[in-house]
Specification:
Nuclear Transport Factor 2, Chain: A; about 30% strand; four-stranded antiparallel sheet; alpha+beta; single chain; about 150 residues; 3-hydroxyacyl-CoA dehydrogenase
Amino acid sequence: MNNLSTVSRPDSIAETHSNVRRLRAVPNPEHQRPTVRPGMPDAVAWASRLVQAMSEVIAGDRPISQLVRFADEEVFAELNRRVRLLGLTTTATGRGAHERSVIRSIRVCTPAHRVAEVAAHVRHGDRSRAIALRMEVRRNRWVCTALELG
């Protein structure tokens, strides 16, 4: 007899929901805030600044040249391509402050020494955007080595 046939499946959404509630994951306090090792910059502070800067570049509120030192060649080239496709060649000096990008939430995980992975929710006016990036320490500063925009 096949073992798969003996597994019971929930009959309703309520049963599924009750099963999910029973599987509460208890967060590990060590993973709440990435640890800062001596001589390394704070990953959360850098992630917040970098996400804010990238969202402003994508919105046209900041020149892309300001990200040269904080993104590797591939990430910078992809951001530059997106900015050119959107036709954002200059900063938007005439926009009101109410249209600035605002970070609503940010999560930073450090899966390895000198590596941080970031997930952020950014609002720009009435629109939301998800930004995920990977940062690695190079020459004692965080550099974005992978970027996903949603």
